[in-house]
Amino acid sequence: MTDIKTLALECRDAATAIAGLPTEAKNALLRAMADALLADEATILAANARDLEAASAKGIGSAMLDRLRLDASRLQGIAAAVREVAELPDPVGQVTRAYDRPNGIHVERVRVPLGVIAMIYEARPNVTADAAALCLKAGNAVILRGGSEAIHSNTAIAAALKRALSEAGLRDAVLTLVEDLRRETILELIQLSDVIDLVIPRGGEGLIRFVAEHARVPVIKHYKGVCHQYVDAGADEDLALALLLDGKVSRPSACNSLETLLVHRDIATTFLPRAAEALRVRGVEIRADEAARALMPGGVTATDEDFAAEFLDLVIAVGVVDDLDAAIAHIRHYTSDHTEVIVTRDPAHAEKFLNALRSAVVMVNASSRFSDGGELGLGAEIGISTTRLHSYGPMGLEALTVERFVVRGEGQVRHPALIKPGP
Amino acid sequence: MTDIKTLALECRDAATAIAGLPTEAKNALLRAMADALLADEATILAANARDLEAASAKGIGSAMLDRLRLDASRLQGIAAAVREVAELPDPVGQVTRAYDRPNGIHVERVRVPLGVIAMIYEARPNVTADAAALCLKAGNAVILRGGSEAIHSNTAIAAALKRALSEAGLRDAVLTLVEDLRRETILELIQLSDVIDLVIPRGGEGLIRFVAEHARVPVIKHYKGVCHQYVDAGADEDLALALLLDGKVSRPSACNSLETLLVHRDIATTFLPRAAEALRVRGVEIRADEAARALMPGGVTATDEDFAAEFLDLVIAVGVVDDLDAAIAHIRHYTSDHTEVIVTRDPAHAEKFLNALRSAVVMVNASSRFSDGGELGLGAEIGISTTRLHSYGPMGLEALTVERFVVRGEGQVRHPALIKPGP
To answer: Signal sequence: where (chains A, B) (predicted)?
Structure first.
């Protein structure tokens, strides 16, 4: 097996070609990749069957088995997602600003690819194709290290994608799948600071903390989404209830689902009994502070851990607060910097909430579930950042590039006097 | 002495107030800081004299003594620089994009402060005031750890700045000077991943590598500037010579000075003898490859190390190349990703050079010395990044913020069907 540093260096060497590829060539490549995935359906599904068999034998839970499972329809979905990336605008070469300086030099800020991006992720085999498509479209080389449970599926998917690269006359090392599944190999990979420009870990908090704590290269990550919804005094209760149910129930395993409901005490007596019933009907367990519990039959007492928890399940923590300031103080204390929502009719309260909190996504009267690259108009999502550097919140193609300076002059110098006396 | 974690936590707690301060209040604060620096002139210069005395006793070189030295005129310059930051546009709250989604939610990308920024730097005491002004203007708290040589100067400067904070009713912990000069304290500081949002090291390559290798928080840095100038066949020789002299001679200790001159072989026979004479007159030592040496009397043979070196002195490496492709290949091999210049009359060659190289700043027919925040119109410079993440090239106020998402709706949800059946 080739060692990881050699693989990474080959990937980096192949990065120059993809960085300079014209938009139409990249789009054609992505469409060819989608075709290759469909052409390899039998191989990919057979590989996936091996993964599923091994996972079942290990006694892996049904939720994870479902994330791992591919079928013809899901594979078509993966291919369609790759095609959609081909349709997105190319961020590379975009001129974000252009201006002349007083001395006449013309300055442009222009987006360039980051270089080599390493993705480290868990079970879902669709990430292999999604991440490859997004990284390549933004002109980057990509190193993929998926979970061991999906190794056969990932290898088959990567083989299809690599064939499309070769057929386009590109070195297939620009997309490198790491098949060596030892954790020491991840460790070595994330310390290659002269080779890798960015690591994006996706998966459980344990994996992400391992990467963040050991990386010698920049990491963009989020540990968890403890998303809050605050219902202000005088809020539209129907609207607040709709946002609560959408936020909590529509996909509890998503990081943009609600984990905590805070309610102003002046609206609690009418709103919380309705909320309790609507949540109960939908199977949501309620963990409430003392004031809220008195108004929500069937709720249990919330601990401090409950208010800090990302349940990823049909469970919600509920608290009653004295006023907007108390809601802000609660959120500041427990925030994961992901997404916070205020439901209010008072524009001044809305602005105060937006300004007082510095989470990646802050919302007024909208569902936390819109905190998503697709929903916010990025076209696709490579991950979500709760690190306030480079990118904050859902990350699309643009987050896989950086702006640099391009300067055009006609011989301008800083110290003309220096030049004159010489020959 | 209070331990560093306690200091950092106090700084972080004070960050909320500065993050929410209106622009005019921040500008008034900065002007008061400039006044406080001038009011403390006697104290600051006395403290500086103590540093200079200790440095002389240690036998520190004259260049470093000069960087350390303050006088009334230099202090006025420092105060003026703080005032200039007050005049710059405030990046916080800037809406960079605004759009509606098909479902009617309104999305804005809005700049917010990064949070807590740690600056780790060497001798120059002016950095204490410059960095404080830039970080605070961008709504950030700042932890400053300057070099031991400047400790008395830095303490006196920080005391003046902190007085202005207190008089403005702000907690002065928002600007924290680390007076504990042990290297273990830096180590502890740069591992406080729950407290510090960004570390910017400025100084020698040794300090920067130490920070980069041990940090558990994001680092923005550049190790060195090995800036290249390539003179194309058919270039205007007078123009090429002016850019060469400005690039090499105007301030050899700056990271944006030229270190390597590459010349197309078709222009070498006429250009290099002129360049050799002009450089010689100005005391520049020439280290040349075989072909260049034959045309540059007095030059010595360049080693591979010379082409990789940041001389920071009146020394230049010179090479003759067969064509533009060879120049690009040379620069790709030796680049520090800082700044590269092409001198050419051929627009197609200029575009090829700009596209083939991915350094932070690429220039056509302009001096490498323009690779500077002030010269490129950023107003001021907190540092230069050769890391392709967050910021690439000179960094101004905007680089001390990040864009987040602000969403305003009227009750939109992702799964309306989910809501209906409930009570």
So the answer is: none
